[in-house]
Records
---
Amino acid sequence: MNPITTQQLLNALEWRYATKVFDPGKKIPADLWQALEHALALSPSSYGLQPYRFLVIHDAAKRAELLPHSWNQKQVVDCSHYVVFTGRTQMTEADLDRFLTLTSRVRNIPTETLSAYRGMMMGDLVNGPRGKIAHEWATRQAYIALGNLMTCAAVLGVDACPMEGFVPAEYDRVLGLGNSGYASVVCCALGYRSANDKYAGLTKVRYPTTDLIKVV
Amino acid sequence: MNPITTQQLLNALEWRYATKVFDPGKKIPADLWQALEHALALSPSSYGLQPYRFLVIHDAAKRAELLPHSWNQKQVVDCSHYVVFTGRTQMTEADLDRFLTLTSRVRNIPTETLSAYRGMMMGDLVNGPRGKIAHEWATRQAYIALGNLMTCAAVLGVDACPMEGFVPAEYDRVLGLGNSGYASVVCCALGYRSANDKYAGLTKVRYPTTDLIKVV
């Protein structure tokens, strides 16, 4: 483990901002994008279940179709890579078994050794309290991935804009998610800031750390 | 902007895991923790509103009191820094004005220039559709902060364990959040892995990127 310095991290986080105007001519190089996809896949999630899928919208026609359902925010069409985060609409026994089969294979252990873990997840996410709010639970996991992606982009020098201002039902329709078991929950535009984005130079607005963080 | 290399980032993300056993004797140095607090405060949030507070539980007696309400997960008492993320229970006009007053001061602009922004937030988070799910909306913002914090910890070589397995109502009681307007939503233990944590050596389980990420 070869950590970066605190200054390097904080510089990156100070440098990042919710990019309002992307330079449509600047694309994220393929190797950098591949690393960001890898980073996204490495996001932590509850029980490790990864109850989401990430849609990268390359098709210009689709992006244009999404624009009016995105409060007409131009980042949708101007950014280099536009990611729609989707979350599982419910959690089923099959979801758990798919994950446990993968775990068993990757770690080379019999699935039977995972039966207590399976029981815990069943009693929580399928039949338990969180089963009733499974889509919301999945949404929260997608937000962890969003937080991870934005920080990863920042340390790699890639600009990003998180986007909650869109109409999920319309996105689901345009992206054909109807019966997929996934629904769109949040989006993130990535690429490079335009030299004309006046928001790039604004001072960040944050409550004092003493207000935000309390020691108990 | 001085980005880190993709390899350095991916090494950190591969190195991190949900730490099950912390070394109770190893504390995060003060300067490193200060940087993590700063990083946490720099988390992106919807409209920039930061509808959360982070409680850092140093008091050993409080941690012991939280343990039985945390599925008895020992990370709560053994980790170096234990953070409880709380989210605003509702959004009020006063929340918006507090934020706009701060914005006006930090950016040295009259609050009147922010009236359209204020109207948009009012129509969304106070009187609009998201007003009805304001605590859930705040929770999602806290999850962005959680994702950010875990990635920041990883690149700085600090171990972490996100924790959803706790009883929010009991946490709120123990932490005296009753009438504060904030409620606990998720936690994160930070510190250093014990040499005895057998989970540290396990292969990460992730669906293939081709399953998780779809190009449209």
---
Amino acid sequence: MPAADRVVTDVARRFLDVRALTDTLAERLSPEDQTPQSMTEASPAKWHRAHVTWFFEEFILRQDPGYTVYDDTFRYLFNSYYEAVGERHPRPDRGLVTRPGVRDVTRYREHVDAAMVDRLERGDLDEAALELVELGCNHEQQHQELLLIDIKHLFSTHAFGPVYVDREPDEPGVVTPVGWRQFEGGVVEAGAVGSGFSYDNEGPRHRVYLEDFEIADRAVTNADWLEFMADDGYRRAEFWLSDGWATIRETGWEAPGYWRDETGTRSPDPADWTTYTLSGRRRIVPDEPVAHVSFYEADAYARWAGARLPTEFEWEIAAGSLGAQRGALLDPGRCHPGRAGSAMIGDVWEWTASAYLPYPGFVPANGAVGEYNGKFMSDQHVLRGASAVTPAGHERLTYRNFFPAPSRWVFSGLRLAR
Amino acid sequence: MPAADRVVTDVARRFLDVRALTDTLAERLSPEDQTPQSMTEASPAKWHRAHVTWFFEEFILRQDPGYTVYDDTFRYLFNSYYEAVGERHPRPDRGLVTRPGVRDVTRYREHVDAAMVDRLERGDLDEAALELVELGCNHEQQHQELLLIDIKHLFSTHAFGPVYVDREPDEPGVVTPVGWRQFEGGVVEAGAVGSGFSYDNEGPRHRVYLEDFEIADRAVTNADWLEFMADDGYRRAEFWLSDGWATIRETGWEAPGYWRDETGTRSPDPADWTTYTLSGRRRIVPDEPVAHVSFYEADAYARWAGARLPTEFEWEIAAGSLGAQRGALLDPGRCHPGRAGSAMIGDVWEWTASAYLPYPGFVPANGAVGEYNGKFMSDQHVLRGASAVTPAGHERLTYRNFFPAPSRWVFSGLRLAR
Amino acid sequence: MPAADRVVTDVARRFLDVRALTDTLAERLSPEDQTPQSMTEASPAKWHRAHVTWFFEEFILRQDPGYTVYDDTFRYLFNSYYEAVGERHPRPDRGLVTRPGVRDVTRYREHVDAAMVDRLERGDLDEAALELVELGCNHEQQHQELLLIDIKHLFSTHAFGPVYVDREPDEPGVVTPVGWRQFEGGVVEAGAVGSGFSYDNEGPRHRVYLEDFEIADRAVTNADWLEFMADDGYRRAEFWLSDGWATIRETGWEAPGYWRDETGTRSPDPADWTTYTLSGRRRIVPDEPVAHVSFYEADAYARWAGARLPTEFEWEIAAGSLGAQRGALLDPGRCHPGRAGSAMIGDVWEWTASAYLPYPGFVPANGAVGEYNGKFMSDQHVLRGASAVTPAGHERLTYRNFFPAPSRWVFSGLRLAR
Amino acid sequence: MPAADRVVTDVARRFLDVRALTDTLAERLSPEDQTPQSMTEASPAKWHRAHVTWFFEEFILRQDPGYTVYDDTFRYLFNSYYEAVGERHPRPDRGLVTRPGVRDVTRYREHVDAAMVDRLERGDLDEAALELVELGCNHEQQHQELLLIDIKHLFSTHAFGPVYVDREPDEPGVVTPVGWRQFEGGVVEAGAVGSGFSYDNEGPRHRVYLEDFEIADRAVTNADWLEFMADDGYRRAEFWLSDGWATIRETGWEAPGYWRDETGTRSPDPADWTTYTLSGRRRIVPDEPVAHVSFYEADAYARWAGARLPTEFEWEIAAGSLGAQRGALLDPGRCHPGRAGSAMIGDVWEWTASAYLPYPGFVPANGAVGEYNGKFMSDQHVLRGASAVTPAGHERLTYRNFFPAPSRWVFSGLRLAR
């Protein structure tokens, strides 16, 4: 009996729901689409699908002596970065692993799904193991987002812009002026409280001293960004961090990622610009939040605007006061931000002024999963919120996303503070 | 009615035979296998299959106003290096073009096959066009070999060595001592005489002055090569060209391409070494001709052996005197050299001492096809003969293959002269 | 009358003292020594001497219409990174600028010295200008340290280890066990109070919330480091940040910068190791603070030791409680750390856990000097204290030094916290 | 008594003359000028002066047990590429060796000069040793040319173009039309006959079969080159070898080395272009032979002109028929080509169509000096003639100069054939 048809426990249901979304996202991709790696930071879709499966096999199923490993070579092929697990396939060469193919990866997923459901139904997993299952589900959700941004990057390198999802063009709307929400300083608490799932890097909850601050009531939009460009924002060194200035001179960036000037005039008219979306190349929609900007660009924009980026603690306090408001989260039929609204979670991740560092008292989990977050705590920048390709339920007020400063293939935007 | 079932002219039959072999070679490759590019010099199998098809479309079919182009984007995607045809997809990114997929490439092949057969049957192609058809057939044969060496390279990067073709292991045989065949010098003629097909770079036939020379009666074998290794051949600078020495220090090469020391002892015992073959990783067979050595290694070996490489003219004169003898050519059920015998054509390409330069009076063909050979006449080295993955009928006494000195993914070996 | 012989004001005296130390440091360097640049991050000694001079000319003297510019090409040649000042010589090519030579640079220094003393004696500089003079003096002191670490790096590339300063070898002493000093958490104030000179990046003074913490009463020593090495510290991934692990695998680092294993045994005996010092290659002195480790190594050591690096605020609170204690500062006759003692300022800079970020409310100075510090506030790490090549008087409790994580040509060590 | 004042033998006189010219060339260079290395292929002037000295010490003086080595570290520091002599300083870091300085190198030269003159006067050197002395003299002459082209390259990187030698600007003259000299084909002899000094690579003299050919009666001039540029020579792929086209797209070359378009209009008017010369930046002189073009550019020009480059054998036959005619050779007061005249030797080296390969029967000398030429016989191109910085007496009809195809810091031009 296929796993999906059985009566299952809540945990198993949660597990299967997450697993099913991955399959849904992969359905539109041919075996060829799922094979290449368009840059070192990205991974093949096929690899994502196998790696998240390996995670359950490695950390849950292999603990059970009765489990039959699907294919022992997969431990080498689909370990991402866990040194404690052993040697692994070199990251830059993930796109060369043509075998297993997509069909075999699907069978691998089915094998692990069945074994996991069996295991979950048996009811003998202890608390630590159940936490690892939940970690595995969150891990897979995180990779659902990565799968989509990696496919977007891959498709964008194609001269004729393939379409991942068909949808109607968005009509341009009205760009509202920015308003400012005010917060008083003092000692505040930040970080995950510990009820409900969170990654280890979100804790411990701890005290922070904040000065008074103001934060914008909406994200920076494409229309705002065109003004920055029209004011020679990419050509005036005074707005830029030194590394940022070096980066844009070396890369030649003059606009956000995926943007293209269709007229060669660098006009500030949105109608002259297109951007590659998961529905193919589209006109810029002025009232959408700007996406695919690097930390350097976000920081330069803020300086140009006479403002700054919020720290992650300012952001968390401000977002906490808004309650359950959400912008666009992952809708497989859209995969693109909506209009900039008042919600702080959703649409685009927002760069903060904070470096990605451990909170006071941070201790990574024991064993290989302790490598999940902690070892990346240097030279990365915290993004907060969530994006239009973050699966619903995976977003969280205390979520700390992190990327190096030049990254812009994630749906990354910004919000001003001062 | 499918093209393959029709009564066809000789030219069409020749055309269809060549086309069919490509399909046979691709049959064992999954869509995933056909997608990646494992190094800049290699191309995806899918790309090879489409590119050779584009060649017929571009140079034959597009001349006919009645022809319906299959997909206009393919001109950009599948042009290899013809500047005169226009812009093209960047070579290092061929592995990122997931669309068209394998199925669509197959349809493209069928579309062009049908149109070509139609065209050939109509009987209205002039001599120049028929020569282009024959050039296209040779071009496709050349790419059949490239497809196989590129797949071999791709598969060799896989930690678990996939098998392209199943076959029994070869039994080690006896390595015969080298004999020397003697030739007297003087003015000789070399190059293609012009009856039957040849590439433009094989002519014009012209006179060359040769000194007396001797040439070995068999290729250098794996057993020979192990002696060179055992005598510290890779560690003694006195045998090496300066660029060769720099290359092996930078790459760390200590043995031919695809070889692996299974004991870590660098023993000269063939039983301790394996090589990756298209049938997976196999023990070294001592009496096979050594393959996958660079020009630098071939040259160093020759110096170690107190000999030298033959010039391409010496090689041609010597091979011409042997008549129709052939070593192993492409057998889809084997794809691997046989034992070193007296034939000079087949098994492995043989590096010569000659730089790849135009013959006196060489003029490339008019138009885009003039870019086929001539523009590569700098800093490459001539190989003569043919290999175990060269399609039968494509080999030729005057054939000039050429690769840069460090190349070793081709089945490249050597023969001594003095 | 030479500037140095005149009766001068206090400011002029201060100016001339700083200038004189630069000349003293350069005296032991031949014109050849002063010319090359051994890596992009370093600069030629001659360039340092000219650049600090240009700083006074650019920001003070050129404001005076009566000033005669020494050589107008120097503005291009000796601007370091001030975009607002205009185009400049590419940083990686500083070692190719052979003209002006050392003698001409000396004349340039004399010209600017004389003009500066004139200007200072005239007594008509306003407060802002006098602050720029003081900034220029601190700038030159900072470059005195850079000149020495750059020369150390340059000389270390020489196969026969030139001696910059002759001195007796240090006798090994006793390594004392680490003690821990305890501090209670709460809201504290950090940053420069504004009396006396400080860089803009040291302010504004602001409140920070700290948890309780302990900090070691001495720096990590060479003896400690040898234990880490003996315990396979450089080979166990579990201690390392991901970027750190990648860095040591790529670079092959197995010991601090300038260390050399003289026996090839990687023994933990200090007698088997040497380090390049400004007095040539010397035996490791066990009770000296370890120097020339990167942030990655410092962080890994701390994790191995079951501790962590202090934040820059913890460091500042702890150092503040020690008062005026100083370890070794620049002594031109030594240029090397002393034994690890209780002082936190001196001997070696200490890596902290803090990223180099603006303090709340930070605003860079107006004009070109605003580029002095602020634009480097990304992806660098704060070091606190001072080193044995920091000029006395330049060290400060609130001083924020900063370097990228892999840097180790500065005298960089660490102190544990927990 | 200083060596230069003594009565000396002819060989010693020859030796001292060569040595003196090196000193003359270095006199205008400051210690700073003599220190850096502006690219890997170039060397510091100081290094050239020491290396040529080391050559005599290594191959002559060290054979004498009574000789006192000047400094044993110099064997490591100043060996260029002789593997047989042992380890040596890495080539790309020659510019970091500040010690020995210029003064010490001068003393080293004096030490070796004195010892050599002693040795030569003693009259006990055997024939082989005397041949090595002559080789050493030729070696030093070769480095005189290298010293000048390396200094030209170094100075050209300086924003303000230093002057090596003062001289009046050349007046533009009249460009004469090209005439063609005709030669009949057949078996000819080429290579050094063995009387008088020649490098090993110039022999053995051997027979070659040539077709009929014509060769231009003057070199290609700057005026000719401007026509090629005006006809979009650098933008039309059809003229270029594939590697050449890739090179100019990557480098952005649009004119010969050191040329600069002073108007930004890329006009074909020589008055709008300057070139960096050893006398500083100067206007293009139309009737001078073009210099500082790569093999790729020379080859493309020839194709554009409907001609080709001569082979080195055609060149040698043609130049041999002209007798003792010489263009400009090294005049320390000029260091720049004269007007294009009928001489084939002098002014600029001329790229040929020939790859740099061993002549039939070539055997390198025994011992370390066997590395002088032979090991470079791959992937380089032969230039014939001599240039305006080749010392008089060093030029030779059979001289084979060689450089990789993209090189253009040598005074390299071309002459057409067909």
---
Amino acid sequence: MEGLRKFPPRPTGAGEMFQLFRDGTPHTRASLVAETGQSRSTVAARIEALTAVGLLAPAGEATSTGGRPPSTFAFDPSARIVLGVDLGATHARLAVTDLAATPLASADEPLAIAEGPDHVLSWVAEIGSKLVAQSGRQVSELAGIGIGLPGPVDHADGRPVNPPIMPGWDGADVPGVLHRHLGAPVVVDNDVNVMALGEHRTACPDEQDLLFVKVATGIGAGVVMDGELRRGAQGAAGDLGHVAVTGADTPCRCGNTGCLEAVAGGLAIANALAAAGSHAETTQEIVDLVRAGDVAASQAVRQAGRDIGTVLAASVSLLNPSRIIIGGILAGAGEHLIAGIREVVYQRSLPLATQHLRIVTSQAGAQAGVIGAATLVTDRFLAAHSVDALITVKEDT
Amino acid sequence: MEGLRKFPPRPTGAGEMFQLFRDGTPHTRASLVAETGQSRSTVAARIEALTAVGLLAPAGEATSTGGRPPSTFAFDPSARIVLGVDLGATHARLAVTDLAATPLASADEPLAIAEGPDHVLSWVAEIGSKLVAQSGRQVSELAGIGIGLPGPVDHADGRPVNPPIMPGWDGADVPGVLHRHLGAPVVVDNDVNVMALGEHRTACPDEQDLLFVKVATGIGAGVVMDGELRRGAQGAAGDLGHVAVTGADTPCRCGNTGCLEAVAGGLAIANALAAAGSHAETTQEIVDLVRAGDVAASQAVRQAGRDIGTVLAASVSLLNPSRIIIGGILAGAGEHLIAGIREVVYQRSLPLATQHLRIVTSQAGAQAGVIGAATLVTDRFLAAHSVDALITVKEDT
């Protein structure tokens, strides 16, 4: 009876067979026939094509149930390499990864983004090339370069759009410049989106709807719905820093008053601490004070959490995520920040939207950005190439 | 150079060829070969399979460029029928449509949802059967039934979850009951999602990111991102009615204070009017007062627009839609509501998110619900059956 009411399931199609391998699980021809409902000859031809392009490799023999043991096949993430780049205002992280976005070599360097795109991107290419060599591979093996920038990016053409803390970068052809240096396809996104993607894939890949919130000097979010990062019409989705906080009237550098960033960002907390007689120059120093047990700092961070909570409560009503993940430097202040956020979100949201909601601290931490940047590339590369391989099968058979 | 930086495009696969027909455009075998990059034999086999299941029909001959003129094929939306149902608290709309969600027969009837699921769903089945007969078709031709309910629905199993204005419906097996009556698959969603879907498909199908806001006694929204309705983890996404309005402290029936619905819903406006010496019992009467030129009513509706605008400004920062569509009974008050909304959204949002944002009134109007409900069905039916047909091709050739 239940079955009769359902539409027939959408059968596993072209690119989807390869997706079964993405998590690393090995499969035999027989298990794929069972899982996909495809004929034995179709499955065999697809495995052959994916093996020919290097995405699948033999992975030993499965246990036999009598007769010759069946061969197993598994995704070979070493087929190509990727360069993931996470640029901040004063800091850069780079990693060469395999096609599973697992780092093979990485670097963590001071960098002034204000030196402009020519200087910074040449430097990225130089360090990137060194990391490729360090991991024993060639630049020609790059499947692509993924890069996160600390400002708004037009996702369609990969160019920054009026980025406030990146002088000289407005409209810069980041993909073109990096491609001239390294000769591989380039994907650009803002830093919070790449962190959200890195966190999603490493910490909770099965979660379909989540909000990743970066709390540092600035405040921003990455939106995942139905398992994919959602960027909105101009790639500006998740820009929570300038949402009005109920009851607040602090002037903000954007020209409005009461913006979340002006009320609960690193600078606002430092100002609150100064008024209470404590002293912190940077967001990291605020975190250090909290860890050292400074009461005023703990109270200020908890209040910032409450203010962030008012904006997140509205976001919970709008998006109904199953998880909110708090990242960024201030997440290092631990339970004080999260406690303030939880207090307001659970009070201000409807029960249906919070009954299964978890609010947690980032697990990927500082690595979220480079892993996410590499993942931007692996997703596109594997989607494009696995389908290529399968289309070839179809035309041949 | 530009091409070198790009990943190869994902080739047109299985279900995607049929999608080229969904907008009604006729195609020839040759045009499909050019558009999809598939071989002539693959295209021919797919057309044959789609014709065999009735989804495609010959559509005359194209202009010849010499020799025998090529045959054209087009989607045949009359292959099956659909029942779309939009239930409100005191009102029901039903329509029998074809597979393009174009109404063939419709009904618009008073109905008390509070009479409970058994009574209401029997009635829906009875009126639905009459409409099927009236459109000259058979109940056995139903591809499915789509139904929108005025309360939260668990999208996975189609059951209402604690719906505040639907006594007796909590957890009711709506799909099971309707299937027993009519023998077709059933898809259930909340009324605002169904309206958002209907509006999206009829008024602006190419818009990828939009927010549809229903403003009536209650206030709620449907979220479309990357071209699809996004429902969130429990199907509660878009529930804006209980987001806090900056500076407001009106008590709300949900137990919190300052909720958008308590500040700017139909009842709140009626209360504001009573205080100003005007009188309206229902949201429709408020609209009538505004249309009659009542100054207090116009001012109250514009203020409601501003309050809705504060919540929508936060939504614009979070989702970066390219369009906000205002529907529901109060949208009938015209420019007064929209003007208040625009005033606050453009003032409170960042320029990047509003540079291409349009805020408009619903075009589908009262029909949005039934068309959306029918679309829930056609989308699933066509996705499932077109892929079925194509899979059959692949196994055969």
